[in-house]
Design brief:
heterodimer; A: 285 residues; alpha/beta; 10-stranded mixed beta sheet; 3-stranded antiparallel beta sheet; 13 strands; 33% helix; globular; B: 259 residues; Glutaconate Coenzyme A-transferase; 8-stranded mixed beta sheet; 14 strands
Chain lengths: 285, 259
């Protein structure tokens, strides 16, 4: 059964130094608040997994939480590069980061395999691509029935997955909808799973066949309205396109970035304070 | 109506999408051209985005691959794993529509790195869905602006394969799809020529010279025996494109032409 906890308590209990952590979200339902809490609690040496690392991974990397990044597309969607990721890869700041690079089809299949309790995923992929030359974990397997040579990649099985979702009930059952990405697979592939939600209700009123993660498959559920900012939660919040653009100059420079993290993340007690600070800064402008 | 080279590129790319075809759409230029096709010549084109929407009919162009607009206007929204497993690998995609940072003469694509992989000059976003779209879609269209830096003699990194080393490369690699059938730029249209499958110029946009194309290509570009002049964008195409860009700019608070 998932416990209903504060985000502070959930990260304290379930995210450890050195863990493999997947904070998933395919441009929707990105668990930003949880990423901030990981920075506040100063977790180190994390292996971060995500198909589409964007702003929150830039922040975790720049804040020195990550040792390794497993990914398939890293950027600020619609804007440009992740400057903190690039600085870590190109100039080892604030520390060196190992990168393990895949394609989307690979990682999506690897999460499915992880959730299925399998050691690896098989897919038709990578023929003619240079990616297997730089990622030794991408191998091949021969079909025992047809002889076709297919790609074999290790499954993703995080120590802890963190996702954001729309609703939970008081027992900790979670309902999510819209662009689902690999949220369900990532949750079920992990040993532990934290879900932040927009609201906690008496009854989910989930339509039949909808995407429900049962409480007994989760570790913690935390009420964090707006916790996926600057991404969005379909039906609750809008994507903050201006913030994605504003992030570019902040992240471009080490000093500006560090000042931002110190003031807005390390300098706030929780996500509610962070949002209040962000709002008053926007008003001052 | 007068038009600019970016508009010519988008219109020329949109015309390549047949009505009723099932198209796996990349974000950015491919998404713009695919939606222009849907709003003009190909109202029944089915647009699939890797985040999960199938049959998306966005009123404004998405800024990200997972904008809510795509989900709200889609016939159905499925998990990302399903997009790649059932719909792409399952063989249901007619056209993969891709952008690129760099392309070579065989339509191979680099979106990973400029320079050495381990000591990059420029680190690009990476593969995303492109390698398997390039492999498994029945055909592939590539759209990008043409310059010496983007049309290179040798790619530093092949992220997504086109015609490989040319000739029967794709068959030897066991790839199910036919690979890239067109590269549409702001200057011209290129198509692969059998048996080498090297891309040659088959249509030049109005007002563009052969010298411009040669100067903007990093390999000794060849021209087909018969080279057409691309028909100019007509008023219907231009109006639809400009309306789409204006709606997008208003929705996202951008300058028209950015999206």
């Amino acid at each position: 059964m998932a416990e209903i906890l504060s985000l502070h308590e959930a990260v304290k209990q379930f995210v450890n130094d050195g863990d493999t952590v997947a904070l998933e979200g395919f441009t929707h339902l990105i668990p930003t608040a949880a990423g901030h809490e990981i920075i506040r609690q100063n977790r180190k040496d994390l292996t971060l997994v995500r198909m589409t690392p964007d702003l929150i991974y830039d922040q975790l990397i720049g804040a020195g939480c990550a040792r390794r990044l497993v990914f398939s597309w890293g950027g600020n969607p619609g804007v440009g590069s992740l400057h903190r990721l690039r600085d870590a890869v190109e100039k080892q700041w604030p520390q060196a980061i190992e990168i393990e690079e895949h394609s989307h089809a690979d990682l999506a299949n690897a999460y499915v395999a992880g959730a299925s309790g399998l050691p690896f995923a098989v897919l038709r992929a990578y023929a003619g691509s240079d990616l297997p030359k730089v990622n030794p974990l991408i191998k091949t397997v021969t079909c025992p029935f047809t002889g076709e040579v297919l790609a074999a990649v290790p499954s993703v099985r995080p120590d802890v997955t963190v996702i954001h979702a729309q609703k939970a009930d008081r027992k900790g059952n979670v309902l999510l909808w819209g662009i689902l990405g690999v949220q369900k697979e990532a949750a079920l592939a992990a040993k532990r799973c934290i879900v932040t939600v927009e609201e906690i209700v008496d009854d989910l009123q989930a339509p039949m066949n909808s995407c429900v993660l049962p409480t007994w498959a989760l570790s913690a559920v935390c009420l964090v309205p707006g916790g996926s900012h600057p991404s969005y939660a379909h039906g609750y919040t809008e994507r903050d396109n201006v913030f994605y653009q504003a992030w570019d100059p902040i992240a471009r420079d080490r000093a500006t970035f560090t000042a931002w993290i110190d003031e807005y993340v390390r300098g706030t007690a929780d996500f509610e304070q962070y949002q209040a600070k962000l709002a008053s800064a926007a008003e001052a402008q | 109506m007068s038009y600019n080279t970016n508009e010519m590129m988008t219109v020329a790319a949109a015309r390549r999408l047949k009505n009723g075809s099932v198209c796996f759409v990349g974000i950015g230029l491919p998404s713009k051209a695919a939606n222009l096709a849907r709003l003009t010549s190909s109202p029944d084109v089915v647009l699939i985005y890797e985040s999960g929407p199938i049959g998306a009919k966005p009123t404004v162009l998405p800024l990200s691959i997972g904008d809510g607009e795509l989900a709200e206007t889609a016939d159905t929204v499925v998990p990302t794993g399903e997009i790649f497993r059932y719909w792409l690998q399952g063989g249901r995609i007619d056209v993969g529509f891709l952008g690129a940072a760099q392309v070579d003469r065989f339509g191979n694509i680099n979106t990973t790195v400029v320079g050495d992989y381990h000591h990059p000059k420029v680190r690009l976003p990476g593969a995303g869905g492109a390698p398997e779209i390039a492999g498994s879609a029945k055909s592939v269209l590539i759209i990008l602006k043409q310059s010496h830096r983007s049309f290179v003699d040798k790619l530093d990194f092949i992220t997504s394969v086109g015609h490989g080393e040319g000739g029967d490369s794709r068959q030897r690699l066991g790839l199910p799809g036919a690979g890239p059938v067109g590269i549409i730029t702001d200057l011209c249209i290129m198509e692969p020529q059998a048996p080498s499958h090297e891309f040659v110029v088959t249509s030049i946009h109005p007002g563009v010279t052969r010298e411009q194309i040669v100067a903007a290509t990093g390999w000794p570009i060849r021209f087909a025996e018969t080279v057409d002049t691309t028909p100019e964008p007509n008023d219907t195409e231009l109006t639809a494109l400009r309306d789409l860009e204006a709606r997008t700019a208003a929705a996202h608070g951008q300058t028209p032409g950015d999206a």
